[in-house]
Design goal:
This is M24 family metallopeptidase. InterPro entries: Creatinase/aminopeptidase-like, Pept_M24. By secondary structure, this protein is of the alpha+beta class. It has 3 domains: about 130 residues, Creatine Amidinohydrolase, Chain A, domain 1; about 110 residues, Creatinase/methionine aminopeptidase superfamily (Creatine Amidinohydrolase, Alpha-Beta Complex); about 100 residues, no CATH class. Helix content is about 30%, strand content about 20%. The strands form 5 sheets. Strands 1-2-3-4 form a 4-stranded mixed β-sheet, with helices on one face. The protein has a 3-stranded antiparallel β-sheet with strand order 7-10-11, with helices on one face. The protein has a 3-stranded antiparallel β-sheet with strand order 8-9-12. The two termini are about 40 Å apart.
């Protein structure tokens, strides 16, 4: 709130039509809004933060928010007006945005009701877009600590899915592996935030993502898997090579291709410098890759409470250039990203050691 210059933030939600930000501000056991629910955050001039609620009474919610609404003496809107008048904030942030879906959670109906009922404070109402982004993208130290083991769960699932325990060449299909992954996620009591995909590349076939087909020797398998656990989302892509019966290791050319991609991953990671914009990270990464003789494609997105999270966009798979507005947002500390990229060498000269 201090960084964005907003000293009062009002987050409103209706039951079963919750603002995505609201869902991250309530304890897990609360689950949903109750009828009309409202949270108010106020940061005073001494940097003391108040966390207030104008929602229906809730023992779960009251562990974290001070209840301010007495339904016997006032309406929720009267309670909100009273809170504003008593604190006299310089502005009132609400969740509206033209460019960021996750920061645009205030419904049209509530927007109209808010303006009708807060008429005397209307001149103070501003968009809390940057505040929403900052809240959703920032990971606590505990979340950062837990993210690694959460990702390891996904890696374990994929490694088993791509093993001989699941795949029998010339018999198992890509769809069967997809279903196995979905069932495994379900058996572990986890949630997939998107349907896992499994596809392959095959020598002699130009199509680079073949799906719904039988897996055979010499195929290069690819998967994309994302789970949600402890409130955090993952987005993991892996590749695997299906050995021929007479092979004991992956062919040298495939190893070289993977090494090229690893080199590009390092380039991108090194360009993740705080305060650089997404477009600056994209441009510098692509320029460095080009100098090393790589033909690269860069797409990386924020990840956290949501799989396709909010924050700086660093390239798009269908726009390998400057991304207006969302690409101009800067990188901050304690934020997380999924790297989705590929690279190939433009000439045959072995692997360039960086």
């Amino acid at each position: 709130m201090k960084r964005t210059g907003i000293d009062m933030w009002v987050v409103l939600a209706r039951e079963y039509n919750e603002d995505p930000v609201y869902k991250t501000l309530i304890p897990y056991l609360q689950r949903t809004a109750s009828r009309l629910s409202g949270l108010v955050f106020y940061l005073d001039s001494s940097d003391v933060l108040e966390c207030l609620s104008i929602s229906r009474p809730s023992p779960t919610l009251e562990k974290f928010y001070k209840g301010m609404w007495d339904s016997n003496t006032e309406s929720q809107w009267e309670s909100l007006n009273r809170i504003i008048s008593e604190r006299n904030p310089k502005n009132i942030g609400i969740n509206t945005s033209k460019d960021y879906a996750l920061a645009d959670g205030l419904s049209q109906g509530l927007y109209e009701l808010l303006h009708q009922n807060l008429s005397i404070h209307q001149s103070k109402i501003v968009s809390a877009e940057k505040l929403c982004i900052g809240w959703l993208e920032t990971r606590s130290q505990l979340e950062l600590k837990k993210y690694h083991p959460i990702y390891n769960i996904v890696i374990d699932i994929i490694e088993e899915a791509f093993s001989s325990r699941v795949i029998t060449p010339n018999k198992t299909t890509t769809d069967e592996v997809q279903w196995w992954i979905m069932q495994r996620i379900n058996d572990l009591g986890l949630e997939a935030w998107f349907t896992p995909t499994v596809d392959l590349q095959r020598k002699g076939i130009k199509e680079n993502r073949i799906s719904n087909t039988t897996i055979t020797h010499g195929d290069i398998l690819h998967c994309d898997v994302g789970i949600k656990y402890l409130g955090l989302s993952t987005d993991t892509q892996r590749v695997a090579y299906v050995l021929h019966p007479n092979e004991t290791e992956v062919p040298r050319g495939i190893k070289a291709a993977l090494s090229n991609c690893n080199d590009f991953q390092d380039i991108v990671a090194e360009n993740f410098v705080p305060n650089r914009t997404g477009n600056e990270i994209f441009t510098s990464s692509m320029e460095e890759a080009k100098k090393l003789g790589m033909k690269a494609m860069l797409y990386t997105h924020p990840i956290g409470y949501h799989g396709h999270g909010i924050g700086p966009i660093i390239g798009l798979w269908d726009n390998q250039g400057v991304v207006p507005v969302r690409g101009d947002y800067p990188l901050y500390h304690d934020t997380c990203y999924a790297l989705e990229l590929n690279a190939q060498k433009m000439y045959q000269s072995g692997i360039i050691k960086r």
